Amino acid sequence: MGKSAKQKGLGNKEAYQRINYLYQAAHLCLQQSPSNPEMCRFYINTMRSVAEKHVIRMHPEIKRSICKKCCMLLLPGITSISRNKKKGERYTVVSCLECGSVKRFPWGKNYQLWVEKPAAWQPS
User: Fold this and answer.
1) Where are the alpha helices (DSSP H) in 54-109?
2) Cα–Cα distance for residue pair 42/72, rounded to 1 Å
3) Integer Cα distance of 3 and 13 in angstroms
4) pLDDT band at residue 12 using 50, 70 and 90 as cut-offs
5) Which Pfam families does the UniProt entry name for this protein (predicted)?
6) Strand 80-85 and strand 91-96: pairing?
7) Which residues contact 94 (CB under 8 A, 6 or more apart)?
8) Which residues contact 26 (CB under 8 A, 6 or more apart)?
9) Starting at the edge strand that comes first in sequence, how are the strands of the sheet with 80-85 ordered?
């Protein structure tokens, strides 16, 4: 594949497909056997290493559904607990049941992810 194809963002198509496959496999594996999370953890670990190797940014929804500490897929009720807090600044708290780590996601009126901002899509 030539340089022009890589500049258009088509160079890592196989890597994106592999990341997608590993994420879906981890999700399915955890839904079928929640008592055995090691296979799911292996798939997520492999997915993260492929993304690092090819320098690929994962979508925020995928990043939000993975525990950074123990590499576990966060499924509400199976591997995580999700709660909404409304005191002061409103946010969602997601707690991992495997390692106990906590993630907080704000959901205020003016809050936007970087990907959703128009500056993210302008060529540099």
Assistant:
1) 60-64
2) 9
3) 14
4) confident
5) Rpr2
6) antiparallel
7) 64, 74, 76, 80, 81, 82, 102, 103, 104, 105
8) 39, 40, 43, 44, 47, 73
9) 80-85, 91-96, 102-106
The separation between CA 103 and the C-alpha centre of its own chain, rounded to angstroms, equals 12
Pairwise CA distance, residues 117 & 106, whole Å = 16
Q: What is the pTM of this model?
A: 0.77
Judged against a pLDDT cut of 90, whether residue 89 lies above it is answered with: no
The shares of helix, strand and coil residues in the chain, as percent rounded to the nearest 5, are: 45, 15, 40
What does the chain come to in residues? Answer: 124
Residue 81 carries which DSSP code? Answer: E
Residue in 70, 67, 19 with CA at minimum distance from that of residue 43: 19
Distance CA 65, CA 4 (A): 34
Q: How far apart are CA 69 and CA 101, in angstroms?
A: 7
